[in-house]
Amino acid sequence: MGKKVLLPAEKIELTAVKYQKEQVEAPHLTGFWLKLFVKLIEAPILGTLILSRLRKENKMTEIFRNTVIPEPPMFKPEFPPQGPETDVLQLEEDTKPEERVGSALKCLPEYDPSRSLNSDASIFFYWKIRDYAHAYRSKLVTPSIIAERFISAMDEFKNKNPMAPLLLSYDAELIREQAAASTQRFEEGNPLSILDGIFMAIKDDIDCFPHPSKGGSSYAHEERPVKEDAASVASLRRCGVIMVGKANMHEFGLGVSGNNPNHGTTRNPHAPDRYTGGSSSGPAAIVASGLCVAALGTDGGGSVRIPSSLCGVVGLKSTYGRTSMEGSLCDSGTVEIIGPITTSVEDSILVYAAISSSSTAQRIAMNPSPPCFPLLINDSSATLGSFRLGKYRDWFNDVVSSDISDKCEDVLNRLAEIHGCKTVEIVIPELTEMRNAHLVSIGSESACGLNPDYENGKKSKLTLDTRTSLALFRSFSAVDYVAAQCFRRRLMYYHTDIFKKVDVIVTPTTGMTAPLIPPSSLRYGETNFHVAGHVMRFVVTANFLGFPAISVPVGYDKQGLPIGIQIIGRPWCEATVLRLAAAIEDLCPMKKKPVQYYDLLKGD
């Protein structure tokens, strides 16, 4: 193949850009055939040939090794200065987490206690953080009572066959101790914040002392003992949150299905024969099941937003550098964040408020603007009416089922009709290059972190799925990685230009609803890059370029499976994303009760 020379990004004529549907060339394997494939790709000569063929068939060789890219590399997201957001409350980062939560609470609409324990049982809705707080203050229930209901529900999961664990590390007595302390604070009239007594799960790659951090693996806790909470978990504890344990996940986050042969695969609460999505599978499932109002996940390739969409809950990815990654297994990458999974947008705001504090290193490197929260207590009509929603039609409609694009399109039409939002047609060049550049970036960074284990006898302890991914990632060269970073600068230019014309970019969150779990995948795992391509189609932009994004449930397909819409915002503009998300949530109030659901507040 001859050399290809790209024009500089500023000289690309957007009217000539043609959308290219993603074509993933890779086998779908489970069971014996997956075991055989792993042996082949790990073989010294044959493996090199197979992986070279896979890279070539998926255009990676052409994109990264045979293309001259005129832009210099951008090794981490670099953002131009952003204009101020309107109708927001701005805080300083050094504010205490409980004070940030208190300020965010004042931004929310007045609480309606009619949504209390006396509400109509025939209408399903998820309880929110303020519902629990109201019940605690009104002495309708205590955190200790909720703790016993939670523990009883978790005991049920021990008897699941096949195993479908939500939590990988869980201690009933620790939960009782935290709940008793919270109950006493309420009895004394001194709760620490609106989050006091709220039950949260923490993804297994975020430190939550004294629980081990396994990253969904069978051995990581042996190599890296946990001595203290991650920064985000410590902030939540200061607000009185009750940590229930470490939630299940795809091993080391290297997959988007949630399949985990090490500990058992978490099931989708809406359809237990289907995946939750991943890699934050346990956090999304435990929230969708009603067992926790919120959970923390990590998102390096849609890993908060994908399972949130497939499980029918809300998943927020903040701007890269907005929240501290200290105390997580993925704390040195260029695409990951820690973010909340919740049952509502207002709960996302409250949890985000608690954890929205950059590390010192991030503040120096990224120079983040102060965190802001949308003033939802005010009439948002004027602000929403000025919003311009960017939509790349061909990309938007590239989904497995038109149920997804139709449902998301209906939301845009209603936003225009009710709030006056304007949909603006946009074009985004080089989406194929971006997907591949993201894969090279996150893959190379993951391989770098896991390579010592791989070389020092731990390879056999990894799942076959992870070994397949690592074989591919280890085949990437320095040329591939640097070329991917050149594309990062190039794509940042395109999106910076797009954000001069629109306030947000709107897409479906995923290109398909929850996929079926092949029974043969439960023991040995599964590799299915075709499904991964559909599931990840819309999410990698926010990771590769560091933008904030959120997934909001908007309805269901004909099989009754949840559909999510994604809002991607300008850097540091979480308040804009959250405001639009709240408006969408109000337009889509009807929820379907999951098959697997526990009402801890009522005790049903």
Secondary-structure class:
alpha/beta
Low-confidence stretches: none
Number of separate strands = 19
Gap between N and C termini, in Å?
64 Å
Helix content, binned percent: 40-55%
Looking across the biggest beta sheet, what order are the strands in? 5-7-6-10-12-11-18-19-16-14-15
Question: Total helix count?
Answer: 23
What portion of the residues fall into strands of 2 or more residues? 5-15%
Mean pLDDT: 95
Shape summary:
globular
Spatial extent as radius of gyration: 23 Å
Q: Please outline the major beta sheet.
A: 11 strands, mixed
Q: What can you tell me about this protein's structure?
A:
By secondary structure, this protein is of the alpha/beta class. Helices cover 40% and strands 13% of the residues. It is built from 23 helices and 19 strands. The strands form 5 sheets. Strands 5-7-6-10-12-11-18-19-16-14-15 form an 11-stranded mixed β-sheet, sandwiched between helices. β18 and β19 form a beta hairpin. α6 (143-157) runs antiparallel to α7 (172-187) and α12 runs antiparallel to α23 (574-587).
